[in-house]
Design brief:
The protein is of the alpha+beta class. The chain is built from ten helices and eleven strands. The protein has helices at residues 4-17, 62-65, 86-98, 112-121, 142-148, 176-179, 182-212, 225-233, 251-261, 268-284; strands spanning 20-23, 26-29, 33-35, 41-43, 47-52, 132-138, 155-159, 171-173, 245-250, 293-296, 302-305. A six-stranded antiparallel β-sheet has the order 1-2-5-6-9-7. A three-stranded mixed β-sheet has the order 3-4-8, with no helix packed on it. Strands 10-11 form a two-stranded antiparallel sheet. α7 packs antiparallel against α8 and α9 (251-261) runs antiparallel to α10 (268-284). The longest helix has 31 residues, at 182-212. The model has no long low-confidence stretch (mean pLDDT 93). Bound molecules: flavin-adenine dinucleotide (FAD). Flavin-adenine dinucleotide (FAD) binds at residues 150-153, 256, 260, 265-266.
Length: 311
């Protein structure tokens, strides 16, 4: 059985092996962009960039803690010598407020991992809802985003609008299975070129109709012509079309999504996304995400799991 240290080391190693970087405390795993011979853009893996993470003002508690009987020793709470990631600190402070655990007998930051283990093993995950992380996700197909947006509790999504953006930003996502097979790869590139060309041709044709005031679209205002054209032309775009989004989740939701989507039974593209999200989260807060074990599946891909599911 692997030790925790070994597991944390393997997680950090995989983060850098996948191209992970950390700038100013914000982890990211970028994805390379490719082009077909005809110039159509596509990606082969998800790109994940942490855009926002919590910042916690523990010192701000001082004025509150000083208002209690001095024998309780509450003000010492703000002088804990062990610094935690802000997300862990926020959730720990929220949890400790529940029992007014601010005195010297409280669980100190040094033992934060054990504190969260007690919470997650008991299913008391509500304090994890205080910390949220936001991400830019790209290199993900419309089929993956359709699965991701099924997670409603504690999650927020802003996805590229195929009604508003033009064919100029069209990109596609190649599944790993296609990349491993020359013929499937060739067919994918042909399909992406064809979809891009058909989209452009249909958009041109619809624009002519719109500008000519044809019955099909004439009820709409001419100033909205492009939008009306694109909302019609998008109908031919395949599930392989890239659908970037900004995604926010609180830690309770992010843990649940990791458990559902980085699981061995999850669809492989969303598992690749969930794995990268997890790697960035573990990099940002190895305490709140420290109970997950990374393992390799027979096909060489990865899965992560915890004993404390659905905290
Ligand atoms: C391997 C796999 C296969 C799947 N196959 C299919 C499929 O074939 N067809 C399909 O339609 N979907 C499928 N799904 C999607 C799945 O059914 C869920 O919709 C999705 O995983 C979101 O998870 P969640 O329901 O836990 O919701 P989340 O929004 O992530 O909610 C988290 C938790 O909050 C609670 N909660 C959230 N909303 C409510 C609510 N309205 N009422 C009560 N409690 C709530 C629940 O306890 C829930 O588990 C699949 C998912 C996976 C992982």
């Amino acid at each position: 059985m692997e030790t925790k240290g070994t597991n944390a080391g393997r997680i950090a190693h995989l983060f850098s092996e996948l191209g992970g970087t950390v700038a100013d405390g914000f982890p990211a795993i970028h994805a390379p962009v490719y082009r077909t011979g005809a110039g159509t853009y596509y990606l082969k893996s998800p790109g994940v960039v942490m855009l926002a993470r919590p910042r916690t003002n523990v010192a701000g508690l001082e004025g509150f803690l000083e208002g209690f009987d001095p024998s309780l020793g509450f003000p010492g709470y703000v002088d804990d010598p062990t610094e935690l990631p802000d997300s862990s600190q926020l959730c720990k402070t929220a949890g400790q407020l529940c029992y007014a655990s601010f005195g010297p007998r409280r669980t100190t930051n040094e033992n934060a991992a054990a504190y969260f283990e007690r919470l997650t093993s008991a299913g008391h995950g509500s304090v994890l809802e205080h910390a949220s992380f936001s991400f830019l996700l790209y290199g993900i197909s419309r089929s993956v985003t359709h699965e991701l947006v099924r997670h409603r509790a504690g999650a927020g999504f802003s996805q590229v609008s195929q009604r508003y953006v033009s064919g100029a930003v069209l990109r596609f996502v190649e599944r790993p299975e296609y990349g491993e097979d020359e013929e499937l790869h060739r067919l994918f590139e042909e399909r992406a070129d064809r979809a891009a060309a058909e989209y452009a041709a249909m958009a041109d044709r619809l624009l002519e109709h719109q500008e000519g005031g044809a019955a099909m679209l004439s009820a709409d205002y001419k100033t909205d012509a492009r939008k009306k054209v694109q909302q019609t032309a998008r109908s031919l775009l395949p599930n392989e079309t890239e659908a970037p989004m900004v995604f926010t989740g609180n830690v309770r939701a992010l843990r649940h999504i990791t458990e559902m989507r980085a699981d061995a039974h999850a669809e492989s593209e969303i598992r690749a996304l969930a794995l990268r999200l997890f790697l960035c989260l573990h990099e940002a807060d190895p305490i709140l995400f420290g109970d997950y074990e990374l393992s390799t599946l027979p096909d060489g891909t990865y899965t992560v799991k915890t004993e404390h599911r659905k905290a």
